[in-house]
Amino acid sequence: MYEIRFHGRGGQGAVMAAQTIAEAAILEGKQAQAFPFFGAERRGAPVMAFARIDDKKICDKTQVYEPDMLVVMDESLLDIEPVAAGLKKGGCAVVNSKTAPSDLDLGIKVRCISVDATSIAIELLRAPIVNTSILGAMVRANDFVSLESVQRAIMNRFGEKLGEKAGRVNSDAAKAAYDRAREGTCRGERKIVKKNAWLPTWQETPPGVAIGKTEKAGMAVGPGSMSQNLTGTWGGANPVYDEQKCIKCQRCWFICPEGCVHRKDDDHVEFDLRYCKGCGLCAKVCAKEAITMRKKGASE
Amino acid sequence: MEKKMNIRTMPQEDHLLNGHGACAGCGVAVAVKNVMRILGENTTVYVPASCLLVSGGGMYPHSAFDVPFFYSAFENTGAVISGIKAGYRRQGKDVTVVGIAGDGGTFDIGLQALAGAAERNEDVIYICVDNEAYMNTGTQRSGSTPFGAWTTTTPVGKRVQGKRQFKKDLMSVVSSQDIAYAATLSIAHMNDFVQKVEKAKSKKGFRFLHIMTPCTSGWKSDPSMTYDLARMAVETGMWSLYEIEDGETRVTYRPNEMVPITEYLKLQGRFKHMSKEDIETLQGWICQKWNKRYCPAVPPLEKKEEELALNGDHCEGV
Questions:
Q1: Which of A251, A258, A262, A268 to substitute to test the interface with B, most B CBs within 10 Å?
Q2: B302 vs chain A: nearest CA distance in angstroms?
Q3: Is B130 left (phi over 0), alpha (psi -120 to 50) or beta?
Q4: Which of A267, B210, B256, B307 has the most beta carbons within 10 angstroms of its beta carbon?
Q5: ipTM score
Q6: What is the CATH number of the domain that holds A277?
Q7: Please, which pLDDT band fits residue B310 given cuts at 50, 70 and 90?
Q8: Phi, psi at residue A38, to the nearest 5°?
């Protein structure tokens, strides 16, 4: 049985990628399954999807904990999620990155394929939706399915939903990624720390399952405990504030959905970038253009 | 007279804390965050199944509200907040109880519990955050979805494109009961928003706030357009701002000139398939609403007198 785990961000198409690779395997007469991680996360949040491929019937219905192949659709996830947790020793990893595989640090030394899927997607699809390009790189990493069947699966899946032209462009993206992918071995210096999660056992469950503000297993639980999620990693841009232009109208403070805008004592504002998802609403409501959005990684 | 509250003088302490899981540019998060700032810490929140529940309230054992938070089944927001208030009354505590439901949980599923609570005139605040479809489960049509909009259950096909029915007029359903206060709010009209929430907080009895909250993923719009969408909705007449107090309707903001609906539709992906005839149908419906809302017809006095005279009720001068 060949198991694949996808790590992406909401909106990148991780679920679609898992379904397409499963369909490609089915087209070759194999058995396959694909399903997402069911969570409450939204666009931009780290998400997971899983796929299993086998020659015989698959009875396993659990999530993939020890994948043969790991697919990372956004390089920044390496820093915030334990993506390589459970990856098999002889497995391989596919990472969407501009850097060469030998410069990537996954925390485990395995065969690694890096491909700049974002550039390919923007070039061919004119949108940073990387799922189809990453499929091409996956075939390059391991030929458990052929590129032809992946392209056929893309045509079936995307062509049906978005029209034949969209299907063809997406299958071209897979081919381009197959050709441009770079092979190598990644480094294993990073320490993989598994996230701990706490749920009360039935003996611990309080009446009415009500929980007060407290700490369990090293993390805050109860009212207000969600502020330990630093959502600032979701976004692609950050606000830049020019205090000289500000007229202290507080419209940005009102409109920020995350509460990242703080009012100082003199009614100027400051930004808490740990939580900023980069929506750009503060820049939009500013009448004096005191706030501009800057893409992350762009120079000052 | 005391000066009205505005966004510069409103309370600053957050009670929907940061770190919640809503999409970037979420209109619901903007609305609820500011409502909670005004209601203050002496508040208990109830949220039924909705985006707000999974993103802000209840990924058990975590919660982004730092006030008591409660949730139960989808359809019973009105019933549960009535019960919570009754419990506090019994304990002798004066706590603001607020139920924040989505449009699905208000227009469709929760309507009977809402109508019951309104009829009993329970001393609670009911807030409907209206993003015009069941966004939490992936954009299914609700009673609030406007004419022509794409959803997964009103798909765009060759024969039928998008929803064929018009948006339900929920405010007239709710205000048909003599409730203490009802108002429509928009996150783009900030001072108006703050004043209405403050007014709702200060009153006793059943108070209903209906907030228009654009949704980036369901409306297929850019996250930074949330504010523009809320503003354009009011300017085009898709949404109007008014309050109903003691049976009297008062328009709180009146756009100078009606903006063509296409200006609002073109900002969103859910309307991009719309044909010319469909846009005309929608525009006609909006014009009707606009006239009803902003140009109340003066009752023709002479005719009335004439009728009264014919019926024999009018004695003087006949």
A1: A258
A2: 50
A3: beta
A4: B210
A5: 0.89
A6: 3.30.70.20
A7: low
A8: -85, 105
